Amino acid sequence: MAKRFARKRYPLLERFVDNGDLGRLLLRVPLALLILPHGIHKLLYGYGFVEATLIKARLPGYLSHGILIGEIVAPLLILLGIYIRPAALLQVVVMVMAIYLVHSRDIFSFTEQGGYALELQMLYLTGSLAVFFLGAGRFSLSKEGRKRY
């Protein structure tokens, strides 16, 4: 009964708080803006170390070019809200590969402050997974996202 009263009394507040599209936007934009500088840095200063790491792991070196797509193109698509699911899935693949190739020794490690050693990588990975499953929402350039919601 109290919940019903609250809805009638504060409909604008409830519409703001119970807003999945705003939540999708607040997940999508920071995720893209935090991953994008990694790709820009690799574009400007080189990403040869990625190729060397792939070859050391007995994987084809040409896969290193995918880092530019995964860390520049995919975040831009996520930011704009177009082709969001393929872009998010690509970021998931990039993060899984980064954890496997560079951070695998730290999977069960903690920092001196007691935090998980791969917390940033796991936030990128799970954030990308969440964007993949949730989609773009109404606040996007995608016609599908605006129609559905």
Structural features, described:
This protein is mostly helical and about 150 residues long. It has one domain. The protein starts with a helix and ends with a helix. Helices cover about 70% and strands about 0% of the residues. The protein is built from 8 helices and no strands.
Short description:
This protein has helices at residues 2-9, 11-17, 20-45, 48-56, 66-80, 84-101, 119-134, 143-148. By secondary structure, the protein is mostly helical.
- Low-pLDDT segments, ≥5 res: none
Number of domains: 1
Gap between N and C termini, in Å? 29 Å
Strand content: under 5%
Characteristic key phrases:
149 residues; mainly alpha; 0% strand; 8 helices; globular
Layout of helices and strands:
Layout: H1 2-9, H2 11-17, H3 20-45, H4 48-56, H5 66-80, H6 84-101, H7 119-134, H8 143-148
Helix pairs in contact: 3-5, 3-7, 5-6, 6-7
